[in-house]
Design a protein that fits this description.
single chain; about 250 residues; mainly alpha
Length: about 250
């Protein structure tokens, strides 16, 4: 069963590599990024809407419902938000601002950090969800899979400039492997852990994800997708919410 949990974690994160391959394919990159950048903006906006739904229904709400006193949720959420904020600030100081962000204000390293900070706890939660013998939530997997694609597409070109195409693919491959290991460890090590640990991890992922959305994904989507980005965000939210309520 530990192997099964790891495989599900890998499935959810595998779309990071899919998005990277799309971004690095010359024909697709030219069609999606260079000549028609608004398409990438709308894709980012759709992914942002999916993530908002994941925060609201599949992470924070479940953490609140499972929590007894709410302290674990509040602490986890605050730590996740602070972790992304501090990490993003350190990234901006490590690299010159003009180099760290693209022309539309989205930092590829910032999006990568957000993907790691929300993806690893999510994978742990996927593993923990299998402990009771239940199946993996289709809504959570769909939200993770769908939202990873625009995150990867939008940040891979910047990562490729800094680390090369192979370096960018290697980075995303490491994240996929880490997600699989996190899901396996979540199943293998947290089966007897206090419920507060699991709810804290869910809240941590929600906090990191929400700050990343506000700082990176949504501003970048609006800069590229213009006024239609708001509608695309609403569509992403609706699709993910439908999956959540249907499972």
């Amino acid at each position: 069963m530990t192997l099964t949990a790891g495989l599900w974690g890998a499935v959810g994160a595998s779309s990071l590599l899919l998005g990277a391959l799309i971004a690095l394919a010359p024909a697709i990159h030219g069609w999606l990024v260079e000549r028609h950048e608004w398409r990438l903006g709308l894709l980012m906006a759709f992914g942002a809407g999916v993530l908002v739904s994941a925060v609201a229904f599949d992470l924070f709400e479940e953490a609140v419902n499972a929590s007894v006193g709410g302290i674990d949720v509040a602490l986890g959420f605050a730590l996740g938000a602070i972790a992304f904020f501090v990490g993003d600030e350190l990234i901006d100081r490590w690299t010159a601002r003009s180099d760290a962000a693209d022309d539309n204000g989205a930092s590829p390293l910032g999006i990568l950090l957000g993907t790691i900070l929300d993806g690893i706890p999510e994978s742990v939660v996927i593993g923990v969800s299998l402990i009771a013998g239940g199946g993996v939530s289709v809504a959570v997997l769909a939200a993770v899979f769908l939202s990873n694609i625009p995150e990867s597409i939008s940040s891979t070109p910047g990562l490729a400039v800094r680390f090369g195409a192979r370096g960018a693919l290697a980075i995303w491959s490491v994240v996929v492997v880490a997600s699989a290991l996190a899901a396996a460890l979540g199943y293998g090590l947290l089966g007897s852990a206090p419920p507060a640990i699991v709810t804290g991890l869910q809240a941590f992922a929600a906090g990191a994800m929400l700050v990343m959305l506000a700082d990176e994904m949504i501003p970048g989507a609006h800069a590229r997708g213009h006024t239609a980005a708001g509608l695309a965000t609403a569509c992403g939210f609706a699709v993910a919410a439908l999956l959540s309520f249907g499972t």
